[in-house]
Amino acid sequence: MKKQQFISDYAVYDDENELNAQDAELLRYAHEATLNSYAPYSKFHVGAAVRLANGVIIKGNNIENAAYPSGLCAERTALFAAQAQYPDVPVEAIAITAQSEHHEVCEPVAPCGACRQVMVEVEQRHQHPMRIICQGNTGPVMVFDGIETLMPFIFLEKFL
Ligand SMILES: [Zn+2]
After folding, report:
1. Taking the domain 21-150, which CATH number applies?
2. Active site annotation includes 157
3. What digits encode the pLDDT tens for the residues 20-55?
4. Tens digits of per-residue pLDDT, 63-84?
5. How remote is the CA of residue 46 from the centroid of ligand 1, in Å?
6. Cα of 2 to ligand 1 centre, how many Å?
7. Would you say 116 and 130 are in contact if contact means Cβ atoms under 8 Å apart?
8. 35 vs 38, 61, 122, CA distance in Å?
């Protein structure tokens, strides 16, 4: 037996003002998207914005349901909408933000495991890495240059 480490490289910015113009713009769209979220149960409003290789930006947000599993996360809402409308266009980046009715969200919010698995498939589909930009409502921003830094030992089609 030998112990091994998984090392993840990502960038942390003090706030959105340190980002390049493209990332800062996408993050603004994600913040806008939180305002249209439907989260009457968790009161936790998540917004996502996807930038496609053709320059189009698609917004998504979490849509909850009284039958809880029927709802969907903001990331998948945005990614599925983007893939439905532009199936042949790679996703360049996704920005994710959140705000809560209960407390200030001042730490970056990372995508859940199911959304990470979907990001893997989107990257595989287009053979193109996806930049992932995460913030809370305010505060620092984490930027990942592809899903593998957020999702080690990914499950791939080759295992089927
Ligand atoms: Zn999710």
Report:
1. 3.40.140.10
2. no
3. 999 999 999 999 999 999 999 999 999 999 999 999
4. 999 999 999 999 999 999 999 9
5. 10
6. 33
7. no
8. 9, 8, 26
